[in-house]
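Dear colleague,

As promised, here are the two records you asked about, laid out in our usual form so they can be pasted straight into your sheet.

NAME FIELD: protein one
SEQUENCE, THEN STRUCTURE:
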Amino acid sequence: MMLTVQAHAARPLEGKNPIEPTSLLLQLLGNIPLHTSQKYSVVMTQLKAGGISSNVIPELAHLTLDIRASTNDQIDVLRQEIASLIEHVAEIRKTPIIWNSCGFAPAAKPNLHAIAILENVGCIENGEGVREKDEQQLLSVSLIIRERRALQGQLIQSMLAEIGIKVRNQQLEGGAYYDATQ
């Protein structure tokens, strides 16, 4: 949340516009560099800012971010990067920014029990991360998803790969998706 001073649009120097640091923060969030092959995303899903009239500079802006990653470590790194960007924007714009990190759902961890069961029945990892039995690929899943859900498909693929299940993602546009799943 950006906290600023409300002002009339005719006298903008008497206040601070929270939309300006918000837009700078959004530009920076789109370029968070993570040195990883794992998929992740940081997406603004809500932005609330506005004065009581079109000629009033608002006193605050509130934005909501959806942060997703396939591991808890990645989530922690993303949170640290976001906190650093927020500090940077607050310093540049001389605007207090309050960041509430809530609604955290931990990423799934490999199920050690499932791995043990697979190993006990002779399913071994083939060196490429896929489990086989008697040199034949045992576990493979085809996942049909809508194009707009591509990131979720990639996350499912990476999580199942951690226990040796190969997933093939098939991304379809809306009409083709409904045809394929009926």
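NAME FIELD: protein two
SEQUENCE, THEN STRUCTURE:
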Amino acid sequence: MNDNFSGAGNFELPTLDMETRKLLRETQNETDDNGDRIRKLEDKLANLSLVTEALWSLLNKRTKLTNEDLAASIQEVVHARKTREETRLTCIKCKMQNAVNHKKCMYCGGELIGHTEKSLFNF
């Protein structure tokens, strides 16, 4: 008996034991699920892009902001995000380095040394 797995281009495999067949079906299901998740993420990204463009259009029409102002603001945000990502806080207890978005040490739960301004956009 041959197994036909359509997800990989309709080809037949030699007779497989039950465990291998089960694994192949699970892998195919995971692949299908991941494809669905990717499509949903792409749809969300397209919607966010549309909303962003609409918001910019409103701001541009109702204020004196220009495309150059927007470009400069984008560069400021890029720099601020990079700075936040590169900044590390040291744990008092274990001396491990932690990202600034942690309230406590992710390794031991200890208190972190240092202070940085947190962004509303750090989740």
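A couple of things worth noting about protein two: Residues 18-62 form the longest helix (45 residues). The beta strands are 3-5, 11-13, 88-91, 97-99, 112-113.

Best,
R.
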